[in-house]
Request: fold
Amino acid sequence: MRGIIIAASILVPLGAAAAAATPCAEQIATIERRLESPGAAAVTGEAPTTQGSPKALAAPPAGRPSDPATVPQAGRIAEARGLIATARDQDRAGNAQACNDTMTRAKELIGALP
Reply:
């Protein structure tokens, strides 16, 4: 009986932690890593963090994107950061659809980051 209680007390926090990682929270974390990359820092003029995204480029590719709307701009990235904060609040409130919609808008604003 004592072993069951100990096992249950160990498993309950693990289940709560797994439930906390929502799909929208994963999107938020992914985009935040992209915004910390050296390539994104080149667009915004900020200093890159040491983390960044392992898939991000170190510098923007040569040439221009074929779709001018995807060119990253510092002002739009700043606006996207505000949307990401809103999405985080929506995710904490359990509003998955609003969080996904907000993240879609944030990704559109960010454009094609290197």
In short: The chain has five helices and no strands.
